[in-house]
């Protein structure tokens, strides 16, 4: 059986990336071919390398906000890895429409809110400030608009009276680790039916 190739982009510790890698075994239709970061010091790169996955890094900082030139470098190892699917997993750079278009229909992102609520940053604090009873995470197809695009799955947590942004983030992250692998497996099978977890 030939597996779909998955490239994963991250900026930090990579716990979602680890959940994705751990899921791609046995009869799973996909395997990781590359883990990439915009930060060569990202903890996620070491975890991927320890699991025998090829890694690459393109530091965004020397490009000083010139997204197009940064992305021209970022895309080189990505294209070389010939991914069928690209998963953004805590990748904290905004991508241009030009970049996104090259992976249209095959790039996924996980976002720590119940989209369309709370696009952007500080999602947990914003859910608490709003007094929401429920919060959660979303996996969606990436389109040119930030944290937009067709929703492929959502997982919900109850907001508790004693919650702080950190406590809430930790509970949402556990759900992310269940949701993202479930969506990726389904997506790799060509099924875009949204998954709802509670
Ligand atoms: C996750 O909570 C993910 O949803 C979030 O960053 C965290 C990365 O954690 N992504 C975004 O906020 C993207 N806008 P991880 O590195 O442990 O997977």
UniProtKB/TrEMBL annotation:
<comment type="similarity">
    <text>Belongs to the GART family.</text>
</comment>
<dbReference type="InterPro" id="IPR001555">
    <property type="entry name" value="GART_AS"/>
</dbReference>
<comment type="pathway">
    <text>Purine metabolism; IMP biosynthesis via de novo pathway; N(2)-formyl-N(1)-(5-phospho-D-ribosyl)glycinamide from N(1)-(5-phospho-D-ribosyl)glycinamide (10-formyl THF route): step 1/1.</text>
</comment>
<feature type="site" description="Raises pKa of active site His">
    <location>
        <position position="147"/>
    </location>
</feature>
<dbReference type="InterPro" id="IPR036477">
    <property type="entry name" value="Formyl_transf_N_sf"/>
</dbReference>
<feature type="domain" description="Formyl transferase N-terminal">
    <location>
        <begin position="4"/>
        <end position="184"/>
    </location>
</feature>
<protein>
    <recommendedName>
        <fullName>Phosphoribosylglycinamide formyltransferase</fullName>
        <ecNumber>2.1.2.2</ecNumber>
    </recommendedName>
</protein>
<dbReference type="GO" id="GO:0006189">
    <property type="term" value="P:'de novo' IMP biosynthetic process"/>
</dbReference>
<comment type="function">
    <text>Catalyzes the transfer of a formyl group from 10-formyltetrahydrofolate to 5-phospho-ribosyl-glycinamide (GAR), producing 5-phospho-ribosyl-N-formylglycinamide (FGAR) and tetrahydrofolate.</text>
</comment>
<feature type="active site" description="Proton donor">
    <location>
        <position position="111"/>
    </location>
</feature>
<keyword id="KW-0808">Transferase</keyword>
<keyword id="KW-0658">Purine biosynthesis</keyword>
<dbReference type="GO" id="GO:0004644">
    <property type="term" value="F:phosphoribosylglycinamide formyltransferase activity"/>
</dbReference>
<feature type="binding site">
    <location>
        <begin position="14"/>
        <end position="16"/>
    </location>
    <ligand>
        <name>N(1)-(5-phospho-beta-D-ribosyl)glycinamide</name>
    </ligand>
</feature>
<dbReference type="InterPro" id="IPR004607">
    <property type="entry name" value="GART"/>
</dbReference>
<dbReference type="InterPro" id="IPR002376">
    <property type="entry name" value="Formyl_transf_N"/>
</dbReference>
<dbReference type="Pfam" id="PF00551">
    <property type="entry name" value="Formyl_trans_N"/>
</dbReference>
<dbReference type="GO" id="GO:0005829">
    <property type="term" value="C:cytosol"/>
</dbReference>
<feature type="binding site">
    <location>
        <position position="109"/>
    </location>
    <ligand>
        <name>(6R)-10-formyltetrahydrofolate</name>
    </ligand>
</feature>
<feature type="binding site">
    <location>
        <position position="67"/>
    </location>
    <ligand>
        <name>(6R)-10-formyltetrahydrofolate</name>
    </ligand>
</feature>
């Amino acid at each position: 059986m030939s597996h779909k190739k998955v490239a994963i982009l991250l900026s930090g510790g990579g716990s979602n990336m680890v959940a994705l890698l751990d899921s791609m075994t046995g009869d799973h239709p996909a395997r990781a071919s590359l883990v990439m970061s915009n930060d060569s010091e990202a903890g996620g790169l070491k975890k991927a390398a320890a699991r025998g996955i090829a890694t690459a890094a393109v530091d965004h900082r020397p490009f000083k906000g010139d997204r197009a030139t940064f992305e021209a470098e970022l895309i080189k190892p990505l294209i070389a890895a010939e991914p069928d699917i690209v998963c953004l997993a805590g990748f904290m750079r905004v991508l241009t429409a030009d970049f996104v278009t090259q992976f249209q229909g095959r790039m996924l992102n996980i976002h720590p809110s119940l989209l369309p609520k709370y696009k952007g940053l500080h999602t947990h604090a914003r859910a608490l400030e709003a007094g929401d009873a429920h919060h959660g995470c979303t996996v969606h197809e990436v389109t040119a608009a930030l944290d937009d695009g067709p929703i492929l799955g959502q997982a919900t947590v109850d907001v508790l009276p004693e919650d702080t942004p950190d406590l809430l983030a930790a509970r949402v992250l556990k759900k992310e680790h269940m949701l993202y692998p479930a969506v990726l497996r389904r997506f790799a099978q060509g099924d875009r039916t949204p998954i709802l977890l509670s």
